[in-house]
Write a structure and sequence with these properties.
elongated, mainly alpha
Length: 188
């Protein structure tokens, strides 16, 4: 399962800027829609219940690394705080991913990922003045840096957040992992 996921992630990344990206997008969407069907099957098994909600803040080590840097560097903590200034966006995003709605799940995941991007971008507007002083940058430079971060976060969750991957931050991570060996089905 992890080998298949790795191949999908690297293929998606490598081909995302290739002229054949449209057919690849269609293939990735078809795979994700199948994964949503597997997730739906898992969610509807008798006796299966969702775990209590938990969040790691901003996944991919962002919150953990930020907190570590703040703990070892009082200057870093004083300048930018103990957590990413947009971590509340990640927690809201984690709630969508934890629940992992599988009915219209492909569209709901796209929406959740776009909401994450927009939330992080909005945090730039509200925090650019404070951070510009702390970092010695112009407010516009801070906004550009945070907007770039928002775009990179969006790309990361699109590539690595699909359901039934075994990853701890997958869509539907509140549910037990999807059963392995489910046959591929044609979408009706």
């Amino acid at each position: 399962m992890r080998i298949r996921l790795t191949i999908i992630v690297f293929a998606s990344l490598a081909w995302s800027m290739h002229p054949l990206a449209d057919p690849l997008d269609e293939a990735v969407e078809a795979l994700e829609r199948q994964q949503m069907r597997w997730l739906n099957e898992q969610q509807n098994k008798p006796g299966v219940v969702i775990d209590d909600f938990r969040s790691d803040g901003c996944s991919g080590g962002m919150s953990e690394t930020w907190t570590f840097m703040a703990e070892v560097s009082p200057d870093f903590a004083e300048r930018v705080g103990m957590k990413p200034p947009w971590e509340y966006c990640c927690v809201a995003h984690d709630r969508h991913y934890w629940r992992g709605e599988s009915i219209n799940g492909f569209e709901k995941r796209q929406q959740a990922d776009e909401e994450l991007r927009q939330c992080v971008r909005q945090s730039a507007n509200s925090q650019s003045e404070h951070l510009s002083i702390s970092l010695g940058l112009s407010p516009q430079e801070v906004i550009e840096m945070i907007n770039l971060t928002a775009d990179l976060m969006h790309t990361a969750v699109r590539l690595g957040g699909g359901p039934c991957t075994g990853l701890p931050w997958r869509w539907g991570h509140g549910w037990p992992e999807c059963s392995l060996g489910l046959p591929l089905e044609a979408e009706n």
